[in-house]
Write a structure and sequence with these properties.
Blueprint: H1 2-20, H2 23-35, H3 39-52, H4 59-73, H5 78-98, H6 106-116, H7 122-136, H8 143-158, H9 166-186, H10 191-204, H11 211-225, H12 229-239, H13 247-259, H14 263-275, H15 279-292, H16 296-308, H17 315-328, H18 333-345, H19 347-350, H20 354-374, H21 379-390, H22 396-401, E1 408-411, E2 417-420
Antiparallel strand pairs: 1-2
């Protein structure tokens, strides 16, 4: 009986002690201390919360990483710094144990804690990244981690590691490129980071990811992935542009289009048809891609591609598509530049009189000015072109002499534009 009462007494003491520690209140306390930059007391109070309330909230861990980073940044020497980094790694483990559903990429985060804090542990970093990418590639959003993982794989290939053959590194190249392409769509706020990482990866793999190597890689692996839409889409994305003449590109484009007609699959069919010189079919596929595209910026890009590519020699249709591009993306300065060039090239043919020819250059000048206003990066180019067109365009005195101030002139031909001159 005494033993029972003793046990009950022990449970009562433990219960009372547990009740004395208010996790929520303590979290508020260390957060207020942190805001006040009282780092010593912040760390002590947070450490207590970390120990006694590991399942209370994910906030404990997210705050903890900031607190430990402060310790890391203010370490007295390299040994102390690594001690704090190692504690951060333990915190990632603890976070994953208590909140596994939201921390599937914890190994990648551990690797980057070592990497970002310049801890000399290259193999450990690689091992963590290798494991993290194998388990949770769908949850990784850190552009630096993606680039770092590929660069370490590439280093192993370059130094002759037998486990990292050209085939293996190309596999990694396909994976990271696909990840970055998808992230640019799903996380537009960080698009510049993902593009920078992608450019870096492509630069590293330039000598390896040649059209011949990519063509052979996809040809050899297609049968294993012929029903995998994601794999085919990634392959087509990687081959697009300079490598789309490869026969495997056409094979995969036809397969993807047969599985489902989308803007993307129609676009790949357009590229394949262009390389086969089936220009009529290519134009139809580009128009289908534009019709199916829901993103106005992407839709504008397709119309611009048509206007400056397959339809560049058909002035009427080129102008039509440039105007469509500008309707969907008014900030597409390069469309104004191309349109201005079309106008200036047509001055001799479309102008019936010297006044009309100069009026067309005036139109080109006014059009190219819009490029600089739409896209500040093009302002210097637009200003230079405007200066060149001004030399051939109507002057204010010529407009006044012709009594055209405030009046308009209609230019027919394919230009089909009405030019209105300033009143003064």
């Amino acid at each position: 009986m005494k033993a029972i009462f003793s046990l009950l007494g022990l449970f009562l003491v433990i219960s009372i002690n547990a009740q004395k520690f208010d996790c929520s209140a303590k979290i508020t306390t260390y957060q207020e201390l942190f805001l006040a930059q009282n780092m010593s007391e912040t760390f002590d109070t947070w450490s207590e919360v970390r120990k006694k309330c590991p399942k209370e909230s994910e906030t404990i861990y997210n705050d903890g990483f900031k607190i430990l980073q402060f310790k890391i940044d203010n370490a007295a020497n390299a040994e102390e710094k690594e001690t704090w980094v190692r504690d951060e790694l333990k915190l990632y483990d603890q976070y994953h144990i208590n909140f596994p559903l939201t921390t599937s990429d914890y190994e990648v985060n551990k690797a980057m804690a070592l990497y970002d804090n310049k801890i000399d542990a290259k193999e450990e970093i690689f091992g963590l990244l290798q494991s993290g990418f194998a388990k949770a590639s769908n949850h990784i959003t850190n552009a630096s981690a993606i680039y770092t993982y590929f660069s370490l794989c590439f280093d192993k290939y370059k130094t002759g590691d037998k486990k990292f053959t050209a085939e293996v590194v190309l596999d990694k190249y396909m994976l990271v490129n696909f990840m970055l392409t998808q992230l640019q769509v799903s996380n537009a706020k960080k698009i510049s980071e993902y593009k920078t990482a992608q450019r870096g990866i492509n630069a590293l793999a330039r000598d390896l990811a040649t059209c011949d190597n990519l063509g052979n890689y996809y040809t050899n692996n297609y049968s294993k992935h012929s029903e995998d839409v994601t794999w085919i889409t990634t392959a087509l994305t990687n081959l697009s542009g300079k490598c789309s003449a490869k026969p495997i590109f056409n094979t995969m484009a036809e397969k993807l289009y047969a599985v489902k007609v989308t803007s993307e699959s129609a676009y790949f069919m357009a590229a394949a048809s262009t390389k086969q010189r089936k220009f009529k079919e290519a134009i139809a596929f580009y128009n289908e891609a534009a019709d199916l595209e829901t993103n106005p910026i992407e839709k504008a890009k397709i119309y611009y591609t048509l206007a400056t590519g397959l339809l560049a020699n058909d002035m009427t249709k080129s102008r039509e598509n440039l105007n469509k591009a500008l309707a969907f993306d008014p900030k597409m300065g390069k469309a104004y530049i191309f349109l201005a060039q079309l106008y200036s090239d047509a001055a001799e043919k479309c102008g019936q009189t010297d006044f009309e020819k100069k009026a067309i250059f005036y139109l080109a000048q006014q059009t190219v000015k819009k490029a600089g206003m739409a896209d500040s990066k093009l302002k210097q180019t637009a200003d230079k072109m405007s200066e060149d067109y001004t030399k051939k365009a109507l002057t204010q005195s010529e407009i006044k002499k012709a009594k055209m101030n405030g009046k308009s002139i209609k230019i027919d031909c394919w230009i089909n534009e009405t030019i209105t001159f300033p009143s003064k």
